[in-house]
Amino acid sequence: xxxxxxxxxxxxxxxxxxSVTVPGTMGSFEILNNHAPIISTLEDGKLTVRGxxxxxxxxxxxxxxxxxxxxxxxxxxxxxR
Length: 81
Prior knowledge:
Blueprint: E1 2-6, E2 11-16, E3 19-24, E4 27-32, E5 38-42, E6 45-50, E7 54-59, E8 62-67, E9 70-75, E10 78-80
Parallel strand pairs: 1-9
Antiparallel strand pairs: 1-2, 3-4, 3-6, 5-8, 6-7, 7-10, 8-9
């Protein structure tokens, strides 16, 4: 599946991944290939990307949208670990 992580000022990440774990408002959850369509708000926390290699970002709130194996994270702010 394809992941895109955006902030108001730049594109932070774009590429193929096998899973993404996001800090949802009601608790963190993992998004895998063929996940049902969803839109969820995100809290400040750790966003973990797994693909050819694992990567960790710390986001400051935002929204995630999943549709047709495309995951888009719109974060208010982000720092890369």
